[in-house]
Amino acid sequence: MTDIIETPTAEEIARHYSAAMDSVTLINAGQPEGMTDEDWADTVKRNKEHLTSCLPRTSGQRKT
Description:
This protein is mostly helical. It has one domain (5-26, 38-63). It is built from two helices and two strands. It has helices at residues 10-29, 37-58; strands at 5-6, 62-63. The protein has a two-stranded antiparallel ribbon with strand order 1-2. Helix 1 (10-29) packs antiparallel against helix 2. It is elongated, with a radius of gyration of 15 Å.
């Protein structure tokens, strides 16, 4: 079986990069006042997972 490599468009790369940076900005802003430690830990965990999932998409190519 041959893997097909798709090259994303500039618009797709920009959209993925923007979404990744949203997660970075949220994490860097720190825990909002009034948010519980448990909710903050969950928020950080979800955003780190999101960033990990963004890596293959922002590398410029992906297998389909």
